[in-house]
Every structure is written in C-alpha cells, then in structure tokens.
Write a structure and sequence with these properties.
The chain is an all-alpha fold. It has 2 helices and no strands. The radius of gyration is 13 Å and the shape is globular.
C-alpha cells in the first residue's frame, strides 16, 4: 500500500573527455532529457553530484535550470 514519491523517466551513463570531466553531467543531462522527451522545467527537483564545487554551477548555467530546485537536501559539499 506504499505510494511512490517519484518516478525515474530515464537515466544516462556517459563517458566524457577526462581533461574536462567536470562537464560530463551536461551532455548526460541533455541526453536523458531528450530520450525522456522532457525539458529541464518538467522536473521538480535536481540532484547533481558535487564532487567539485564548480560542477553544479556549470550545470545550472549551461541548462538554464532553476537554482532553487538544485540539491534541495544538501549535497556532498554541504
């Protein structure tokens, strides 16, 4: 009788140039959105790995995502 809180529409695993590895979430997100037939605004909350501080900032800028929806429960740095 438990109701799901969320649904995974698509998940992408993507290799990227190790010299610019910090940018890997960008093409992975673009691929996932395209394959799911969604836009970034269709998503309520975003979870982006904060292995390095610039990653979520670059992700926000490149995708034009709403910063208020990003890592709302904290992240690796928090």
């Amino acid at each position: 009788g438990v109701k799901p809180l969320a649904r995974i529409h698509h998940m992408s695993v993507l290799g990227h140039d190790p010299v610019v590895m910090l940018e890997a979430p960008l093409p992975a997100t673009e691929r996932a959105l395209k394959r799911a037939g969604m836009r970034i605004d269709d998503i309520d909350l975003y979870e982006v790995n904060e292995a390095f501080a610039p990653v979520p900032l670059a992700w926000l800028q490149a995708l034009g995502a709403d910063a208020e929806r990003l890592n709302v429960n904290g992240g690796a740095i928090a």
